[in-house]
Every structure is written in structure tokens, then in C-alpha cells.
Amino acid sequence: MFKIVEKKVLGQDIKLFKIEAPDISKKAKPGMFVIVKIGEKGERIPLTINDFDPQKGTVTIVFQEVGKTTMMLGRLKGGDVIEDLVGPLGKPTEIENFGKVVCVGGGVGTAVIYPVTRGLFQAGNQIIGIVGARNKDLLIFEEEMKDFCHRLIITTDDGSKGHHGLVTDVLKQILAEEKIDRVIAIGPTIMMKFVVKTTQPFGIPTIVSLNSIMIDATGMCGVCRVNVGNETKFACVHGPEFDGHKVDFDLLMSRLNQYKEEEKIALTTL
Amino acid sequence: MEDKEKKPKRKIVPNKTKMPEQPPLERVKNFKEVPLGYSEDQAVEEATRCIQCKNRPCIEGCPVEIDIPDFIALIAERKFVEAARKMKEKNALPAVCGRVCPQEVQCESKCTLGKKNEPVAIGRLERFIADWERENKMVQTPSRPAPRGKKVAVVGSGPAGLTVAADLAKLGFGVTIFEALHKAGGVLVYGIPEFRLPKAIVQAEVDYVKSLGAELVTNAVIGNLYTIPELFNNGYDAVFIGIGAGGPMFMDIPGENLNGVYSANEFLTRSNLMKAYLFPEYDTPIKRSRNVAVVGGGNVAMDSARTALRLGADAVYLVYRRSREEMPARAEEVHHAEEEGLIFKFLTNPIRIVGDEKGNVKGMECLRMELGEPDASGRRRPIAVKGSEFIIDIDTLIMSLGTNANPLLPQSTPGLALNKWGYIVADEENAATSLQGVYAGGDIVTGGATVILAMGAGRKAAREIAKYLS
Ligand SMILES: Cc1cc2nc3c(=O)[nH]c(=O)nc-3n(C[C@H](O)[C@H](O)[C@H](O)COP(=O)(O)OP(=O)(O)OC[C@H]3O[C@@H](n4cnc5c(N)ncnc54)[C@H](O)[C@@H]3O)c2cc1C
Ligand code: FES
């Protein structure tokens, strides 16, 4: 049993839970994730850790309500408990002083790029942050990101705030103008795919975090398999972060859509 | 001659007392257990078949050395409570073993009666007595011995881990079981289907182990949440590793990542652990497919195929590259699957999986095989017939090719010796690993084996751990 000690609504359907989980908080590092399951009949879903505080013994997750499980999760209140929380899982982000790094966060992915950005900043990197969302109501972690970015650029698809357009527009311009040593992108799969396309001509190492469907998340079932450099990898144990230039994003997107019909059926039982 | 006059020779009953089971056409529509178990009278009838021979070879055939003739004699006398107690002296999970052990190659293969007739149905009697005890609420927890002040961490709650935990708790050691999943039981909960091993029974066995004083911590992935050295730092005096055989194998052929291609582990975990056969009442989905192929010839393949049949598939094919004779699956399981409508495609080897424009599997290209000379395993090696390619139309494919060692925990344990396949090296006799105070047993040592062998390894490890800590 894991108690939700704080709940915040960050934006349209985007919620934050700070959860009491002392042992997980001690081991958590940027880039790692947890598995969440609610109720006896719930499914197991992976959520990347947004923050962790070993002193207070908490881990924080941020999620957008997109399916039955995240909607049920969203209905929980501060003080409620989550039955099953497993973690920290996956390999942490590789953090060292690379030089000048661009951190790209899209949608709820911004909550996840935040600890990565902080880690890279603390390791001495020059950080340019790009945070994108469909509209200003979906923008999250803008303030927090400011603290760890030497420069932060906001983009919205509808122009309601910041640059009117996509994160890749801004990224392309930066890459054309300055020497960048590394790019890290976390957000919707389609965004990561196009970030990788953008950095490819420049030959810049680009790390992405893959959000495959998972069950056990310990390497036992293989549902999370992704194709990286023409090799099958398990996102849960070999990732979730991979070299974006090697990832087969079309396969990932197709696999993420496997249960679209069932997801609709599940919503009718909510 | 003399003997005959003194004691009239008991009449030998040549065949096992039949156990009622659900008829095939009915059971493929549900997930309820297939064999229904003996009634009291049937059990007594079967128990009286045992001739109580002097040399008791059946015990030798049992990896945990249950006093088989003794518990059978007690059943014959209708002393069911005593029979159950007798069995529990040696086996903490009899309701499980009575259902899933391959008795035909263990105890029953040694039965004296079995030389000329059918052996005594030891497995069915074991199941009967365990069920009888549970259903009649006669399960008794032994009184707890005085605590010994030493603590043991057991990693993994499969049959190996549960056995170690039960044995050490009974001796008064403090025991904590750490399990990565949200439910205890290992393969018993995530792999073996409900229709062969009802999950309520596994739960009852887990509860029994807990009632002995063992503490269970679920959602604890050792290697991540705590490492083995950290467990020692946290006050444990010894560690047992029983993490099972782990990860799925694939064939490495084109199309294996298409939608609709499952590992047996995934397919069975969805259905069993996550109860996807009850979707949408349970949240985890599973594809309700029309044409399913299962690749493999072992028990796991049978479980996958029979699960697919119950999920409502029109046709389920078992694709195996050798012939029926070479199949490693138990004859009983093959028989059950056949009765339920499984279609066998022997001497058939997949070479490519074909997808549609949406990335869903729609067919599997195969080659026909012929059997050549015996290979290292003693089985005749399958050889491809040139130009025999053909396509089977399917919308789901389940790869059941065995498992490989999961590196997650070994990688985080410096100094733990592994063999070249990544399994943990542990002494066969005393379960000791290369690290002091760390013991291992079950599938993570042997590779995929059986429930009872994992329990046997657990028993040995418990004995050694007790010695080590005394
Ligand atoms: C589908 C299927 C059907 C089978 N049918 C039969 C049968 O009919 N009869 C038979 O005798 N045998 C059968 N077997 C084999 C049998 O189930 C296994 O040999 C037996 O379960 C092995 O026991 P174990 O305790 O070694 O491991 P497991 O049962 O695999 O248990 C290991 C446990 O450890 C946990 N774990 C793994 N890593 C970690 C970690 N890092 N931290 C914490 N916990 C961890 C796992 O989640 C799991 O719960 C079958 C196997 C399968 C897959
Ligand atoms: S989620 Fe099961 S292996 Fe990755």
C-alpha cells in the first residue's frame, strides 16, 4: 500500500501525485520508471518518475488521463492509497558532462525530462530547454524547467503561448546556429520520431525514452519489445532510453496501438 | 506357499480408479478445472489398491521423499486428517503437486503394482487429501517454535522460494519473501492456467506458508529496490535466490515483432496473473483471435494452446518441428489438448511471419521437415524439405520455445558465479553459491524444470541455511 501524500492538477487532465514510497525514493534516478496497478482487477502500467525525495521518502509521478487506468488513477485523492507500486525500474539516464545539451519535452513528457534536465545541469552541462504542448493549458513544468535551463523556449501548436509551432521548428534553428553535443527528447512517440529526424542530418547523438506497453517490467514477458539498430530489445530492462537514431518508431507506434479497440471497450466499464 | 495360507493374498485391481473430468466440449468453453478430483469413496477405493509392499520404491521416485505408502494407508483407513498431516511433514504444497507433478516419471513410475498393472494413482490421492483438508477446514498450523533471532531473505515466491520459507519458518528463523510481482506463487500464478491449477488453491498454499510466520513483501524487484549486499546490510543473515527461469525466447525470424505475436510468457501472464480472460471485468486485455498458432512442443505450449481454445479461437494449431514422439509435453496434457480440438502440425518449422499493412500478423510461412539422425539430445534431428514452403493463415502467434536466465538480479550481485547460459551456479547437494551465505535453487539454477524439483532444491537449501546459521 502506497499513500498519495499530495495531489495536484497541473493542466487539462494532467495530474501529479506525490506518493509515500521511502525505499523506491532512495533508489530512484532520472529516467527510471515505476509500474502502477490500482485495485484487484487493475492492469499494470508504466509511468516514468517525475521526481523523488529520499529525505521525505516520496516519489512523484505525473500522468495524463488517456485511458481507463489513468482516469481511475486521476479519481484518487490525496490520502488515498495505491495498492501496487513497483520500482524503480529500467536503466537511469546516462548523466555526464557532455557540453551543450538540448532537452526537449513534449506534453506530459516534460514532467519526465525535468529530472533529466536537472541531473544534466548539475553535471555541468550547458542546457537549452525546449518545452512544447498543444496549447497553453497543457504546458507543464515550465517554471521548474527554468531553474535548470540556461535558455528555455516554449512552443505551442496553436500559438497560445511562446513560439507558434512545433518543438522541431525551434530545434532545427538551434542546430543550424550552434554546436550541440547531445539532444534528449521525451514526449509523444511521434514527437520523438521527428526530433530524431531533425537531428539526423547533423549527426548529433539523440536519446529518447520509449513508452512501450509493459506488464511485468522485469524482462519476463517480452511485450515491451522494440527494434533498436535491427535488434530486438526489451524497453523495460534494456531501456527505456535508447539511441534515437537506431529506433524503429513506426514499429513502436504500431505496437502501442495494438489494443486500441480493447481500450475503447474498457472505457465503457468506467 | 506358506505365506499364502497365513494371509490370503490381496486381490490386485489392475486399473486406476477413474477420476471424473469435465467433458471436452464443455470445458473448452470455460476456465474451470478439467479433472474434478476423487470423492472420499473413490479415494478409499484407490488407496486400497496399494499393496503396501516392503521396499517402498515410490518414495525414492519422489524428489521430496513423501512417505507415500503411509499416507495412502491412512486414506484406506479413512483417517483423512492424519493422512494430510503425514503428507505435510514432507510437502508444504500438496494440492499443487497433486495436480502438476509428472507422477508418471516420478513416484508412479517406481510403483511395484505398476510393473504389471497400472500404478497406484499417487498423484490423484495426493490431490484428494490436500483438497479434503482444505475444504473441511482442517488445515492446521504447527505451533511456532521459539524465534532463533536470525533472519533469512528469500528472493522469489515460486515453489522453490515458498519451500525454503516454509521450512525455515518452521524451524524458528525469521523469513521474509521478496517477490517482484504483485502476487506470490511464481509460475504457479502467472504461468500455469486456472483450468490446471486453480489460483485459489495457490493462494491457500501461500497463505499456509505465511501462517507459519513467513513475511511476504510483494512488488519488490531485488537487484533494483534492494541488492543482495543491501539485504545483508539490512539485517538478513542469509539469502536464498529462487527467481525462476525468467525471460522468453524468440526464433529470430522476420516478423516476430508484429502485433499478435506473443511469447508464451506474455500470453499466459495476461490470461492467468492479470485475468485477461475476464476482460473487461478485469482491465488487462488479450486478443480474442480466430486462428492461432503455437510454436513449440512442451507443456507450456500445451497450456498456451488450451488457453487460446478457451478464449474462443476457431482453430488452434500446434506447430512443432519434430514428430509426436519427440514432444517433451506430458502425454496426459497432449491427450487433453487433442480432445479439446487442438490441431497438430508436426514436422513443421516456421521461417517467416507475414503481416498486413497495419502491422498485424496474418500468416506464418513454414517449411516441412523430415527426421534425420539423432542429435545430442538423443532425439532425431529435423531436416528441412527443400521447396516445401507453405503459409498458415493466422491472426495470433504464440512462441513457446523455452526461457532463458533473467540477468537483472545477477548483474547487480558482484561475485555471483553464473554458468555460460547465465544461470546461477549452485552446489547440487547444498545449494551454496559462490557467495557466502547466499544459496540458490529452482529454475534459476537448473533452467526450466518442474515444480517438485524446485521444491526439492528449496528443501536442501533450507537445511543448509539452518546449518549455516546455527
Ligand atoms: C506455463 C508453464 C507450465 C508449467 N507446468 C508445469 C507442470 O505441469 N508441472 C511441473 O512440475 N512444472 C511445470 N512448469 C515448470 C515449473 O512451473 C517451474 O519449474 C517452477 O515453477 C520453478 O520454480 P521456481 O521457484 O524456481 O521459480 P518460479 O516459479 O519461476 O518463481 C520465481 C519467482 O521469482 C520472482 N522473481 C524473479 N526475479 C525476481 C527478482 N529480481 N526479485 C524478486 N523476485 C523475483 C518471479 O516473479 C517469480 O514469482 C511449468 C512452467 C510453465 C511456465
Ligand atoms: S514488460 Fe515484460 S519484458 Fe518488458
What's the helix and strand layout?
The complex is a heterodimer of chains A (270) and B (470).
Chain A: E1 2-11, E2 14-20, H1 22-27, E3 33-37, E4 45-53, E5 58-64, H2 68-75, E6 81-82, E7 84-89, E8 100-106, H3 109-122, E9 126-133, H4 142-146, E10 151-156, E11 163-164, H5 167-177, E12 182-186, H6 189-199, E13 206-209, E14 225-228, E15 231-234, H7 235-238, E16 241-243, H8 249-256, H9 260-268
Parallel strand pairs in A: 8-9, 8-12, 9-10, 10-11, 12-13
Antiparallel strand pairs in A: 1-2, 1-6, 2-5, 3-4, 3-7, 4-5, 13-16, 14-15
Helix pairs in contact in A: 5-6
Chain B: H1 2-6, H2 24-27, H3 40-47, H4 57-60, H5 68-76, H6 80-88, H7 94-100, H8 107-110, H9 122-135, E1 151-155, H10 159-170, E2 174-178, H11 187-190, H12 199-211, E3 215-217, H13 228-233, E4 238-241, E5 247-248, E6 261-263, H14 264-273, E7 291-295, H15 299-310, E8 315-319, H16 331-339, E9 343-345, E10 348-355, E11 361-374, E12 380-384, E13 390-393, E14 396-399, E15 403-404, H17 408-411, E16 438-440, H18 443-446, H19 451-468
The structure holds flavin-adenine dinucleotide and FE2/S2 (inorganic) cluster.
Gist?
The complex is a heterodimer of chains A (270) and B (470). Chain A has 270 residues and is an alpha/beta fold.
Overview of this protein structure:
- The complex is a heterodimer of chains A (270) and B (470).
- Chain A has 9 helices and 16 strands.
- Chain A has 270 residues and is α/β, with parallel strands linked by helices.
- Chain A has 3 domains: 88 residues, Translation factors (Elongation Factor Tu (Ef-tu), domain 3); 107 residues, Rossmann fold (3-Layer(aba) Sandwich); 52 residues, no CATH class.
- In chain A, helix 3 links the parallel strand 8 and strand 9.
- The model of chain A has no long low-confidence stretch (mean pLDDT 95).
- In chain B, helix 10 runs parallel beside helix 19.
- Chain B has 470 residues and is an alpha/beta fold.
- Chains A and B meet through helix 1, strand 7, strand 14, helix 8 and helix 9 of A and strand 5 and helix 14 of B.
- The structure holds flavin-adenine dinucleotide (FAD) and FE2/S2 (inorganic) cluster (FES).
